[in-house]
Amino acid sequence: MSSNAQHVVAIFGGAVAGAEAAEHLSRQGIKTVVFEQNLLPFGKIEDGLPMWHVKLRDKEEQKIIEKLNHPEVFFVPATKLGRDVTFEDLVQNWGFSTILLATGAWRDRPLPIPGVDDFIGRGLYYQNQFFQWFNHAHDENFTGQKCEIVDDTLIVGGGLASIDVAKALMMSTVQQALAKKGIEMDLLTIEKKGPAQILADHNLRKDDLGLKGCTLVYRRQAINMPITPIPEDADEKRIQKACEVRRRMIDNLLEKFLFKFVECHMPVDKVIENGRLAGLVFQKTKIENNRVIPLEGAFNEIRAAQVLSSIGSIPELIDGIPAKGSMYAVADWQTGQVEGYENVYLIGNAVTGQGNIKKSRQHGIEVAKLVAGQLESREKCSPQQVSEILARVGARQKKAGFDGDLPAWAKKHTPNRLENSL
């Protein structure tokens, strides 16, 4: 075998996990081809992280650019697995040593009520669609699906993302109500100070604006919300202290952002009025041994102007990749190895289903280290194979209009940001 033989790894998804894996592998002298479905490799840093996290977003996106801007990394934008490249073609014909799928969790977990999705856009929205729109609503070039901001929205959730939804709704409805009184206020200022303080500064209350506020409903208790982590080895005293901190944090958020919170309610049915979703029926619950126990005969109907579901995200399934139900079929959940494939791995949100930057980064590194170790004992791609792969890569880059200069490409295609238009 020629001394120019080399391993070439494909990574689909260039955000946090994909960029970490690419950086680690490239440092080991392994060529990596990073395919990205969008023009930019920012994933949910751009479209899922609420737009008020300006410093965090900019820092993480710069990290991604730096990690991918390496001679052994070949970035390919506007190329989606299952649309522009089939999984079957990828596995059988491209010749990659290993394939890593950092395709994220872009699909919302369905609200567990039969027929409720028939009302998407008619009183029902989901979190991923909502934040993708919310982050870019100010941008006249945004072509995605639009959502509505209305007072008296019912949020079904319980994680950190559902709190962000509540914040976004309260910030926006307060901004709109103030504007009707001739008071102009930008969203970033409202988020920083909080709607309650903004209103106090103008000697106003929520009732003075005619606002009901949104309501967040959770099937567990406030102390179960993962606002602050509880170590697995925590003793009873430490658990109790963490629960107290969670309760205080929730109370502070309710006071600052003026939304309402209902705990121990799980959605079981829909309320339809005039062809729209007009609320939900909930069954009350209790928590025993960390399990949610529905209370027999205890139901509560909560009507609202619209419903926004924020109960988690799951991967968007791709034709050809083994799946079980709504998730990919994984042989080893720690490594993310896909069932039936020795050299195909899921990394980051695609396997964890969590929008956690730290966990995605850690998983990307762990799997990259595993793959690098495995490749040491495997046959490398011949110079001809490498040349053929890079020729196909070059064709995809040319089709996207990408000339290989990632920093310049990112500068050109970064969308208009709200803070830049204030």
Characterization of this structure:
- With 422 residues, the chain is an alpha/beta fold.
- It folds into 2 domains: 8-106 and 315-421, NAD(P)-binding Rossmann-like Domain (Rossmann fold, 3-Layer(aba) Sandwich); 109-312, 3-Layer(bba) Sandwich (FAD/NAD(P)-binding domain).
- 38% of the residues lie in helices and 21% in strands.
- The chain has 14 helices and 19 strands.
- It has helices at 16-27, 43-47, 54-68, 87-94, 127-136, 160-180, 187-193, 195-201, 236-257, 349-352, 357-375, 383-400, 406-413, 418-421; strands at 8-12, 31-35, 73-76, 98-101, 107-108, 124-126, 153-157, 215-218, 260-262, 265-273, 276-288, 291-303, 306-309, 313-314, 323-324, 327-328, 330-332, 337-338, 344-346.
- The strands form 6 sheets. A 5-stranded parallel beta sheet has the order 3-2-1-4-19, sandwiched between helices. It has a 5-stranded parallel beta sheet with strand order 6-13-7-8-9. The chain has a 3-stranded antiparallel beta sheet with strand order 10-11-12, with no helix packed on it.
- Helix 1 (16-27) runs parallel beside helix 3 (54-68), helix 1 packs parallel to helix 11 and helix 5 (127-136) packs across helix 6.
- The longest helix is centred in the middle third of the chain and has 22 residues, at 236-257.
- The mean pLDDT is 94.
Helices and strands in order:
Elements lengths: L7 E5 L3 H12 L3 E5 L7 H5 L6 H15 L4 E4 L10 H8 L3 E4 L5 E2 L15 E3 H10 L16 E5 L2 H21 L6 H7 L1 H7 L13 E4 L17 H22 L2 E3 L2 E9 L2 E13 L2 E13 L2 E4 L3 E2 L8 E2 L2 E2 L1 E3 L4 E2 L5 E3 L2 H4 L4 H19 L7 H18 L5 H8 L4 H4 L1
Parallel strand pairs: 1-2, 1-4, 2-3, 4-19, 6-13, 7-8, 7-13, 8-9
Antiparallel strand pairs: 5-14, 10-11, 11-12, 15-16, 17-18
Helix pairs in contact: 1-3, 1-11, 5-6
